Amino acid sequence: MQRIILIGYMGAGKTTIGKALAHDLGLEFFDLDWYIEDRFRKKIPQIFAERGENGFREIERNMLYEVGEFENVVISSGGGTPCFFDNIDYMNKQADTVYLNAPVDVLYAHLMMGKSQRPLIEGKTPEELKAYIKDSLAGREQFYRKARYMVDVEVIKYKSQIQALVDNIKEIIATKNQKEDLLT
Ligand code: S3P
User: Fold this and answer.
1) What is the residue-wise DSSP string for 46-105?
2) In the predicted model, is pLDDT for residue 42 greater than 90?
3) C-alpha 183 to ligand 1 mean position (Å)
4) 102 assigned to some structural domain
5) Which of 102, 92, 59, 93 is nearest to 78 (CA)?
6) What's the total number of domains in the chain?
7) N or C terminus of the chain with fewer C-beta within 10 Å?
8) Domain with 112 in it: what CATH number?
9) pLDDT surpasses 90 at 116
10) Neighbours of 170 (CB within 10 A)
11) Among 75, 79, 81, which Cα is nearest to 29's?
12) Contact in structure between 82 and 144 (CB atoms under 8 Å)
């Protein structure tokens, strides 16, 4: 049984890489935000508007505990998921967790290109966005670094980069599992 959870800041590439990884491994793909939107029949910004961030975090945790039981899946978490409650410990217990580690400039570039609506950064000027990423990443990194594995992500412009990241993730997970399989 395989279960992989990708974590990392908004714009790190969790959904893009997660989809490609699932496809490559023949696993089903789940994006936690999309799962929440399906289950609640509401978009994430609407949930934030109606219940505030705290309400969203409760829902996010409950939905994590649902998808965290699914088997043979790749799951992309939300950028904040590992940073609330005991979510990161739960994820490490349930899955091979992979931190997509991207520096501020990469996150900024991806978020400027992205089309998703993200309530936490809605309406920010480019300067404000960069400052916000820098500050909140500094607070979140301690949680992200608790993941079992980490891969570095650069600005993604080409399909070949996505495949290279997929290969990289597959390799680090396989190497670790081999080590755990050793008799001594
Ligand atoms: C959030 C990230 C979003 C989404 C919500 C909050 C965060 O997911 O869960 O807007 O706290 O970083 P993505 O990382 O997929 O954008």
Assistant:
1) HHHHHHHHHHHHHHHHHHHHHHTT-SSEEEE--TTGGGSTTHHHHHHHHSEEEEEE--HH
2) yes
3) 41
4) yes
5) 59
6) 1
7) C
8) 3.40.50.300
9) no
10) 14
11) 75
12) yes
Instruction: Extract the tokens encoding 12.
Output: 């790190």
The predicted-structure confidence for 64-110, as pLDDT tens digits, reads as follows 999 999 999 999 999 999 999 999 999 999 999 999 999 999 999 99
- Residue 184 belongs to a domain: no
Instruction: Please tell me the residue having the least CA distance from ligand 1 atom 15.
Output: 78
Q: Which structural domain range is residue 80 located in? A: 3-156
31: in domain:
yes
Q: Rounded distance, CA 86 to CA 98, Å? A: 17
Cα(69) to centroid(ligand 1), Å: 21
Give the up-direction half-sphere exposure of residue 7: CA atoms within 13 A in the CB hemisphere: 30
Give the pLDDT score at 81: 98
Per residue in 4-35, pLDDT tens? 999 999 999 999 999 999 999 999 999 999 99
In a domain, 52, yes or no: yes
DSSP letter at 133 equals H
How many Å lie between the centroid of ligand 1 and the Cα of residue 175? 30
